[in-house]
Prior knowledge:
By secondary structure, the protein is α/β, with parallel strands linked by helices. About 20% of the residues lie in helices and about 30% in strands. The longest helix has 14 residues, at about 115-130.
Amino acid sequence: xxxxxxxxxxxxxxxxxxxxxxxxxxxxxxxxxxxxxxxxxxxxxxxxxxxxxxxxxxxxxxxxxxxxxxxxxxxxxxxxxxxxxxxxxxxxxxxxxxxxxxxxxxxxxxxxxxxxxxxxxxxxxxxxxxxxxxxxxxxxxxxxxxxxxxxxxxxxxxxxxxxxxxxxxxxxxxxxxxxxxxxxxxxxxxxxxxxxxxxxxxxxxxxxxxxxxxxxxxxxxxxxxxxxxxxxxxxxxxxxxxxxxxxxxxxxxxxxxxxxxxxxxxxxxxxxxxxxxxxxxxxxxxxxxxxxxxxxxxxxxxxxxxxxxxxxxxxx
Length: 316
């Protein structure tokens, strides 16, 4: 569902990070959402980007996002930072691929950098519901820590701890996770790829099982070692076969032949283009699917993923 919104507020909340608030252009309230949800934002120039909602899910008067100005931006973060109050744009209704487990007896939130945004919404929900949790925020310096005023407020401060590299505050993640370990404890991680991998490794070493670990990436894994080889994509519904060249994505090869799949991030982050695989073995390059989902090899993201086998048969 497409929504028409207006930028009611935009302000810096840390070095290179801006908060933007969207309200409905016609007044009233926005659709309800759950903690960890994100929205697709349709930006000037035809760009579409996903941003996590960082306000508490009880707040339907506005949606708030926090956006880091990426030095190597493909245009999205620059376009967001250029938006002025009063600007009108379209967004999609919230979707959630990073939900809190309702059965968790205790929650550990681990944020790295701009990964704070979905976890901030989770913390607001947990605090309002009176559910036990702790919240760790890792940044290079205090000046790069967004939303500190909210995080250090009386209602949140008892749960929150900032870990800034330049303040040299020691923190042993493995020891902390081992201390909080219980069968009903769940860990939620968001941030750069290396940060997520390190936190999940620490959690696994502390005894956590995969069902207790939840993560959301903001960028695809950069794996330059994966060679791009041409392969044939067989469309089961039509019987057509399309050759995907070494220098093009699967989605672009499909579009070239008049077959369009829904696209949004085009980086394997959002899962919008997820397509069922009927035969063959995908070469997964996304960060949307879990390891267990990848191992099943029954779906892939054509925006960035390819094929390990000469022929990949898909449900198109």
